Amino acid sequence: MAKKSKVIKELKRQALVAKYAERRKDLKANGDYLALQKLPRDSSATRQKNRCQVSGRPRGYLSKFMISRIVFRELAHKGQIPGITKSSW
Q1: CATH number of the domain at 50-84, please?
Q2: pLDDT by residue (tens digit) across 13-24?
Q3: What stretches of 1-89 show up as alpha helix (H) in DSSP?
């Protein structure tokens, strides 16, 4: 489980990106880079980090399922992910 502070910080960052998305788009289209620099640093979408929806883990993230590899394995073994079966040959 990730630290709660890191998960909350990432949620705040996502909110800032959503809040300033339209303004950033307009400023980029106009080429006003000085005004873009004055916006909050965390309002840039490239500063977002993908995190597991269940555990908050930042590494080993599977974007198709939006969970980490560890949680994916646990849920797959329990049969809670449709269409995923453990392979054996």
Answers
A1: 4.10.830.10
A2: 999 999 999 999
A3: 4-30, 33-38, 69-78
